[in-house]
Structure formats: C-alpha cells, structure tokens
Amino acid sequence: MNTIDLSYWDLGFAALLGIALAALFRGMRLGISGSLLVAGARMMIQLTLVGYVLRFLFEEGRPWLVGIMAFVMLAVASREILARQKRKLSGWRSWRLGASTLFVSSFAIAVYGLLVVVRPEPWYAPQYVIPILGMIISNTMNAISLGMDRLTDAIYQNRNVIEQRLALGQSAQEAIGGYAKDCIRSGMTPVINSMATAGIVSLPGMMTGQILAGASPVEAVEYQIVIWFMIAGGCGFGMTVAIKLLKGQLFDERQRLRLERLR
Amino acid sequence: MLRIENLNFLDWEAVSLEVGAGEVVSIQGESGSGKSLLLRAIADLIPHGGEAFLGGEACSEFSPTKWRGKVSFLSAEALWWEDEVRAHFLNDPELKVLQRLGLKEECLDWEVTRLSMGERQRLGLLRMLDREPSALLLDEPTANLDDRTSAAVEGMLLDYVRERAACCIWVTHDRAQAARVGQRAYTMVSKQLRKVAG
C-alpha cells in the first residue's frame, strides 16, 4: 500500500496555520509570535535535514554511524535539560548530572527494548534504533529537566524552613520533606496521564505514523505498547536517579544545605 | 560544657569561646555583624573551620543530626512546615508551660497560618525545648514579644538552663537583656567577637 506523497505545496498549506497563528498572537501582543515562527522554521529545517541523514543511515546501516547519531541526540537533549533549569548548579555539575542520568536510563532502556523485546536483525538496525531511542530520550529529557528544575526551585524557595528543620535535628532527607516526592510525581504525571488516555483520546504519534504508512493497526498498537513502557521506564528511573543525585549535590556530607552551589 | 575552638566562617576572625554548664553568654552587635552566622556555624549548619566540642566530644564525632539535636539553634523567626501546630512537636507541651508563656491550650490544634508573630516565636521556642537540647543557641528569642511575655520567655529559658545545666549563647540587641540574662557579655564588632568588660 502506498502513502500519498506530499508536495511542497502541501507543506506550504500546513505552514499557513502556523503563520496565521503568529499573526493572531501578534495582534494580541503576546510576544511569542516571533518564537513561534522561529520554532516552526527550525522544525522544518531540522526535520528536512534529519530526513536526509536518516536515509543515509538506513542505506549504510553501519553501527558506528548509528552510534554517532545516538551521541548527537544525547548531547542535544542534555543541553536542553540544562537550558530549562532556572537555577543551575555551578560549573558543569548540572550538565553532568542531567547528561549522565539521561544517558544511563535512556540507553539502558533502549538496549533492553532492542535486545529483549523488539529483537531486530541486526540489533543496531537504524530503522529501529533511532526512532526508539529518540522517543525515549525526548520523554526522559522532559521528565528529568522538569524534576530537577522543580526540586531546586522548591528547595531554594523553602531554604529557611529546611534550615530550621535541620536545626531541630532532622536529617536532610526529612528536612526536604515531600519536595522530592512531589517532583517525581509531577514529572511522571504527564506520562501516566498519556498512558491512561492512550488510544481513547489520542492516537500516539508513532502509531499514527505506522498506520499512515500502511501498517496494520493491530501491529502498530503492539509497537506502541512496547514504546509506552519504555518511555515510562526511561522517565521514571532516570528522574528518580537524577533527583537523588541532585539532593546529594545540594547537601554536603554534614547534611548542610549548600545553596551557594547554585548560581 | 560547650567549647568552641578557632571556629571560623567566611572572612570572620576565628572565635574561641567556652560556655560552662548552666551558664549564659550573651552576644550583642549590630544586625549584619555575623552573630547569627556564628550560631549557625556552631550548630554546624554552615561550612566552617575549627571545631566545637560538647562535653569534650568534637562536633565531627557526632552525626550531624545528633549534634544539632543537642546543640540547638533557634532562629529569630520560627518557620513551620506542617499545617497544624501540634504536628511540629514530638510531645505536646504541658499546659502549665503554655500558660506560663501566655499561650492558649487550644493553640496546638490551630493552623499555623492563624498564629501571630509573637505566638510563632514562643511556640518555636517550645518546639526547640521539646527536643531537649543540651546547648541553646538563641537568636533574639524575644524579638517579637511585648515586655511581659518577654520576661516570661526569659524566665523559662533561664530555668531550663539552670535545671538541665545547659550551655546557652544568647544573641540579643537589647543591652539590658544581655546584662540580665548573661554571666558574661560579648559583642560582635568588625568581624571579631570581643569580650565586653565588666
């Protein structure tokens, strides 16, 4: 079954929506029409380029090329985590923390998914590796950046309360109270909500793509289920570790709150 | 006995000080002179050099939580984290203790937001004494109180120090209070802790 080939005109008609929206926002003086247009343009350019890159990758199919691609995805995602932090740890600590947890959790989950669940032949086949890794990294990135940002912010806002709790002999763990749990909860909520409504309210992007490309919906559903569990795993494990490491950075070995480590 | 040896923090001059059991040492000084920082450093809440000893045992020998439970820092403004007052106490304060400080019995069931500044300060003090510390590091414990409650708080703290043979460092901007409560007086001037003659 062939899909309909979209012409540049078709893409232009779709882009009209973005332009119309930018014009509306400009009229409302929301101050975001510029960034909307830039984001739209970036999206088009990046996707066009990645289309060529992926075609090249799929034709070549060499593991080291797949490795480079995965590395680039990871580097950009960890930069994005850093960019979304309102208060960063000084030096490279925030970047190290975000990148390492993102790396470990998304790679471990992707490798598990490829070797144990999907089992493509060869296991590094780019048609499987790149989309799967991409979906896990982007969701894990969101969860980790949200969790880290919320925790540093909560600790910063409540620094005096935390100090008094420490002064009363509470441990750092007790003194930051429910903040860390709240962060993990709020980071996981989007994933849980999406899983809960998957298929009823929305057809997930990947499934839509497979169906448009002519795969049987039943088969597409199976892939989507696997993907959802991998996303949940990447987000949950990644964020739990990130939050734990972040707590370690904000308190020292004498359980003193060290907010001067934030900048 | 609380002994402080060459305790230094930020760029303040190192402090050495001994406070005997049952003794109150007062520290005065302008706001921003570092009095509170000194108390925080003794409670091991901020990074510092030097060492503090309680009954001959060094701070670093204690776990941080144990040290702060014994050498307790009371901030000028008591903050709360649970909704109800009672949840902050390990044991409910006795009625006569509440009455002595002019607090109502039912205030333990109140929401924290309902408390006045003065009530917060007095309950914050009880919250600290509830943990039965051996050394008290008090930062302006009567700052938000009127004269009468102020006197009640002073009396209660001095009783605690005497009965438990606790060591007490009492920061106050009130010269008369410093003279009243302290056996020895110090003042923090230009990043130095100086003994006040007399």
What would your notes on this structure say?
Chain A: The chain crosses the membrane at residues 6-25, 37-58, 64-82, 94-116, 128-148, 191-213, 225-246. Chain A: Keywords: Membrane, Transmembrane, Transmembrane helix. Chain A: It comes from Pelagicoccus mobilis. Chain A: Belongs to the UPF0014 family. The complex is a heterodimer of chains A (263) and B (198). By secondary structure, chain A is mainly alpha-helical. Chain A folds into two domains: 1-60, no CATH class; 63-261, no CATH class. In chain A, 76% of the residues lie in helices and 0% in strands. Chain A has ten helices and no strands. The relative contact order of chain A is 0.11. Chain B has one domain (2-79, 132-195): P-loop containing nucleotide triphosphate hydrolases (Rossmann fold, 3-Layer(aba) Sandwich). Chain B is 30% helix and 25% strand. Chain B contains six helices and ten strands; from the N terminus they run βββαββαβααβαβαββ. Chain B has helices spanning 35-42, 64-70, 95-100, 117-129, 147-164, 175-181; strands spanning 2-8, 15-19, 24-28, 49-54, 57-58, 71-74, 135-139, 167-171, 184-189, 192-195. In chain B, the strands form two sheets. A six-stranded mixed sheet of chain B has the order 6-7-8-3-9-10, sandwiched between helices. Chain B has a four-stranded antiparallel sheet with strand order 2-1-4-5, covered by helices on one side. In chain B, strand 1 (2-8) and strand 2 (15-19) form a beta hairpin. The radius of gyration of chain B is 16 Å and the shape is globular.
